[in-house]
Amino acid sequence: MITIANIHNINVNDKHVLVYVGRKTSLPKISNIHDFSSFIHDFSSLGNPFYMSSETDRDNVCISYDLWFKSNPLIYNALQNLLSLYIETFKANKILVLLCFCTPKRCHAETIKQWLDEVSKLKDYLNDTTS
After folding, report:
1. CB of 99 within 8 A of CB of 40?
2. Residue 54 class from Cβ within 10 Å (0-12 exposed, 13-18 middle, 19+ buried)?
3. 107: how many CB neighbours lie within 10 A of its CB?
4. In the chain, how many domains are there?
5. In sequence order, what DSSP letters do the residues of 88-124 get, joined into one string?
6. Rounded distance, CA 24 to CA 117, Å?
7. Nearest partner of 42 among 65, 17, 63, 71, judged by Cα
8. Which of 24, 31, 78, 125 has most Cβ atoms within 10 angstroms of its Cβ?
């Protein structure tokens, strides 16, 4: 299972695998994260490079991220690593939690979650057809 959580309101338990997908410059500034910062997997390379100047930019920034995400070969290694982490998490019967600052508002982490969901469905389909 994959979920998205706001980094300011995290309720962590031993079933959660935390994955930070915000901007690299933001993680060290978070005060409430230090208690479990050693448990956070840093995927800030998947952070949204597009900035909002106001809340009215949110949709455009998320659309731009979606296009960037689907066409950027520079994030391929991070995606491979994230998929491996997701598979490990799934096998351990745990929940992958994508951490960002936006949720419950629209967020770039939704694009990442959608990609993981689609890839895992394809992997399941391929396993079913080859069994």
Report:
1. yes
2. exposed
3. 23
4. 1
5. HHHHTT-EEEEEESSTTS--THHHHHHHHHHHHHHHH
6. 24
7. 17
8. 78
Structure tokens at 81: 């690593």
Q: Which residue has the tokens 């629209």?
A: 106
| Structural contact between residues 24 and 47, judged by C-beta atoms closer than 8 angstroms | yes
- What digits encode the pLDDT tens for the residues 44-85? 899 999 999 999 999 999 999 999 999 998 899 999 999 999
Query: Which among 46, 62, 42, 54 has a CA at the least distance from the CA of 107?
Result: 62
One-letter amino acid identity for 118?
E
- Residue 28: pLDDT band (50, 70, 90) is very low
In this prediction, what percent of the chain has a pLDDT beyond 70?
81
What domain range includes position 13? Answer: 2-130
Helix, strand counts (H, E) of the chain: 3, 4
Q: Helices 109-130 and 58-71 sit at what angle, rounded to 10 degrees?
A: 40
For the chain, give the number of residues: 131
Chain centroid to Cα 116, Å, comes to: 9
